[in-house]
Design a protein that fits this description.
Layout lengths: L3 E10 L4 H9 L1 H8 L3 E2 L12 E6 L2 E11 L2 E8 L2 E9 L2 E10 L3 H25 L1
Antiparallel strand pairs: 1-7, 2-3, 3-4, 4-5, 5-6, 6-7
Helix pairs in contact: 1-2
Length: 133
């Protein structure tokens, strides 16, 4: 693969429950919402499971994902095509951490930062809406 080896490890406080974070990372309907404009394969189960393979696209870039770990507090995706590497998510009460390593022509840290900020906004809105109901 062409590109540069890049690695980034970011952790942010989100001020929501670990269940809300987990639902936002593991449930495909929620993933589709906060990852927009990135799109996911149309044929996905309701919840990401270990062993599942799917693709995502952002413009002309397609990334193949294989779910290596999916449990109540972590998600690890092996990446190929647009990024050769892995993306690991770990979360707990009020925080989420994202670790991304790979070879790519894409600016991975910029995309990772943008994704974390979008996730943060999504989970804050989701938990606020649950409180109102």
């Amino acid at each position: 693969m062409l590109g540069n080896f890049q690695q980034s490890n970011l952790r942010i406080a989100v001020g929501v429950s670990e269940n809300t974070i987990g639902d936002s990372l593991l449930k495909t309907d929620n993933l589709r919402q906060w990852l927009f404009p990135q799109t996911l394969s149309s044929e996905l189960p309701e919840i990401l499971e270990t062993g599942l393979t799917f693709t995502s696209s952002l413009g002309f870039v397609t990334i193949k994902h294989k779910v290596e770990i999916a449990n109540e507090n972590s998600l690890r995706l092996l990446l190929s095509q647009g990024i050769d590497g892995y993306h690991e998510w770990v979360w707990g009460e009020g925080w989420v951490q994202s670790k991304l390593e790979g070879i790519s022509l894409l600016p991975l840290k910029l995309g990772q930062t943008f994704s974390l900020l979008k996730l943060r906004q999504f989970v804050l809105n989701k938990e606020q809406n649950q409180t109102i109901e």
